[in-house]
Amino acid sequence: MTLLRRDRLVLAALAGVTAIAWAYLLIARQDMTMPAMDDMSDMAMPFAAPAVFAMWWVMMLGMMLPSVAPMILTYATVQHRRREREQPYVPTALFVAGYLIVWGGFSVVATAAQWVLQQLALLSTMMAPTTHWLGGVLFILAGVYQFTPLKYACLSHCRSPLAFVLNHWHDGRSGALRMGASHGLYCLGCCWVLMALLFAVGVMNLLWVAGLAVLIFAEKLLPGGVWVGRVGGAAMAAVGVWLIVQ
C-alpha cells in the first residue's frame, strides 16, 4: 500500500468517525427541542448520567478528531515504515484509543460538573445556563487561560506532531496507548477551559460547539495559530466582562 493511499484511508476513517459524532449530536439536539420536551421544560427531569456522559464523549470526538489528524497521520507513517523494515508494528488504532481514553476521563468530569451545576440551579435541565454570572466567569477564565504558560506549553506539543513522536516514543501496544494518552493530556491541557465554555452558552448549542472546534483547529494547525488563540482569548475575556456588568 502506498503512503498516499494509506494516508487517505486514515483520513477517511477519521472523517467518518467525526461525521457519525456530529450526526449523533444533531439527532440528540433535535430530540431535545421536540414539542413534547418543550412542554416538560418546567418539570424536574431525572439526570441520566450514562446518556450525559455519552453526549460529552461523542461531542469531544466531533470537536477534537479533526485537529488531531496530523498527529495520527504522523504516528501511522512511523509505524508503516517500521513495518517495512520488519520491526515490531503496532496498529494506529491503539494510539487513537489512548487519546480517546483521556477525553473519556474528561467527559466523566464534565458529567459530574453538569450534575453539580444543575443541583445548584445554575444550569437548567435543558442544559442551558440560568444566570449570566456563570457565563461571565467562564468566559473570563477561558480568556485569561489563553495567555498562560501552561496553555502555550501544551499547545506547542499539539502543533509539533513529529517532535512529539521523537520525544515521546514508546514501543509495543502499551507504548502506543501511553503515547496516545500523553498526547491526549497535552490536548486536554490546551483546550479544557474552552470546553467548559459550553456551560456558559448551552451544552448542546451546536453553533458554539462548531465554533470552538474551528478555533481549536486553527490554534493547532494554522501557521498563525498562536495569534488566533491570543485574539480569541482577548475576545473571550471582553465578553465575560460584558456579561458580568450587564
Structural class, from helix and strand content? mainly alpha
Query: Could you name the ranges where pLDDT drops below 50 across 5 or more consecutive residues?
Result: 35-43
Order of helices and strands: HHHHHHHHHHH
Classify the beta-strand content into a percent band: under 5%
Number of domains: 1
- Overall pLDDT, averaged? 89
Count the E strands.
Answer: 0
SS element count, helices: 11
- The proportion of residues forming helix, as a percent range, comes to over 70%
State the distance separating the first and last CA atoms: 60 Å
How many strands, which pairing sense, and closed or not: the largest β-sheet? none
| Rg for CA atoms | 19 Å
Q: Which outline best applies?
A: globular
Structure characterization notes:
The chain has 246 residues and is an all-alpha fold. It has 11 helices and no strands. The protein has one domain (3-245). 80% of the residues lie in helices and 0% in strands. The longest helix has 36 residues, at 49-84. The termini are far apart.
What is the topological layout?
Elements: H1 3-32, H2 35-39, H3 49-84, H4 92-119, H5 132-145, H6 149-158, H7 161-167, H8 172-196, H9 198-201, H10 206-221, H11 225-245
Helix pairs in contact: 1-3, 3-4, 3-7, 3-10, 4-8, 5-11, 6-8, 10-11
